[in-house]
Inverse folding.
């Protein structure tokens, strides 16, 4: 049975909420799939679930407040029990590209202190090699735009400053995003590329999530598959 994209997002988003237990500190992802998890968690809280959550974006924060999920911050809670978040690409080792929703910086900070990072997606997000389906978002400081453009250009096939309503898209942290495309061959060595990107002055963070996801809940033909990161 083929589900429409919205049904698939709801299915995986709500399934992931089942992994959240009483007393947990929960990272709330960002995007149209995580939206369903946040709504479900709101329902569960209304029915007595006791959790505290840390959102990865202003949008998720607003949604969490609306559905009644109690919030805390990384200032008081530096370890997160479980984070549920979407992704733009998932490779066979559960390495990811994230950030088409623009929240990659906070998402990565939250992921790196999460004991469990559960990724929710439909099967179209699964790729053999990162960079073959989605561009790689790179968050940069606006002051360094031209420098970053010239340093990043040789590393990819093409790149573009992300725009919204004819203006540069501004992240929750006041930064720009450059979207790097790699063509049909994708990213040759994601680990190496991540290190190179992080070494460029002006680059704040990139959308490569290497070794951060612990499992993924993926919808395919109406069925759910749980994928675990290989050891
Ligand atoms: C936001 C993200 C999202 O998790 C990613 O873009 C997937 O979003 P969606 O569930 O809407 O497809 O990384 O920065």
């Amino acid at each position: 049975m083929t589900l429409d994209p919205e049904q698939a997002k709801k299915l995986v988003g709500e399934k992931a909420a089942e992994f959240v237990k009483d007393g947990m500190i929960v990272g709330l992802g960002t995007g149209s799939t995580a939206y369903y998890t946040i709504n479900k968690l709101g329902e569960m809280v209304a029915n007595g679930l006791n959790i505290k959550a840390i959102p990865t974006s202003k949008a998720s924060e607003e949604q969490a407040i609306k559905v009644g999920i109690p919030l805390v911050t990384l200032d008081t809670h530096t370890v997160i029990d479980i984070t549920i978040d979407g992704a733009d690409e998932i490779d066979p080792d559960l390495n990811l590209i994230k950030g088409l929703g623009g929240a990659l910086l906070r998402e990565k900070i939250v992921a790196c202190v999460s004991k469990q990072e559960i990724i929710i997606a439909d099967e179209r997000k699964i790729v053999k090699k990162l960079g073959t389906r989605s561009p790689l978002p790179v968050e940069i400081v606006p002051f360094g735009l031209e420098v970053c453009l010239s340093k990043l250009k040789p590393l990819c096939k093409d790149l573009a400053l992300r725009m919204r309503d004819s203006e540069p898209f501004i992240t929750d942290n006041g930064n720009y995003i450059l979207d790097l495309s790699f063509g049909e061959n994708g990213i040759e060595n994601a680990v190496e590329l991540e290190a190179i990107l992080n070494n460029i002055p002006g680059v704040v963070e990139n959308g490569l999530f290497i070794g951060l996801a612990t499992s993924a809940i993926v919808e395919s033909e109406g069925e759910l598959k749980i994928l675990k990161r290989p050891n």
